[in-house]
Design a protein that fits this description.
By secondary structure, this protein is an alpha+beta fold. The protein has two helices and three strands. The chain has a three-stranded antiparallel sheet.
Length: 98
């Protein structure tokens, strides 16, 4: 077996009223997009906009949402490097004796 590393991003989002939302994403863009959807879904003032997600804008919106009830509301986008095993399926094999 050989080893490789892959990137993953987790999004944690909660308000103390319902169970926290936790999701795993394969790219930073996907993770920030997921947080954008979560934050905008909890606000009547901010509507989703098509197009690319601006990490700074999403952070600003998430912080504004959290500041309304900082004792109960929380969010986090965290990057991870995961070590995974990769089976060696393409290596040269010696021919078997007959």
């Amino acid at each position: 077996m050989t080893y490789d590393a892959v990137s993953a991003y987790t999004v944690l989002f909660g308000d103390g009223e319902a169970p926290a939302t936790v999701s795993v994403h394969g790219s930073a863009d996907e993770a920030w997009g997921a947080l954008d959807v979560l934050v905008r879904g909890r606000s009547r003032r901010w509507r989703a906009r098509p197009g690319t997600v601006d990490e700074d804008r999403v952070t600003e919106l998430a912080e504004r949402w959290r500041r309304a009830d900082p004792e109960r509301r929380y969010w986090q986008v965290a990057p991870h490097r995961l070590r995974v095993t990769v089976p060696a399926i393409a290596h040269d094999r010696a021919p078997r004796p007959a």
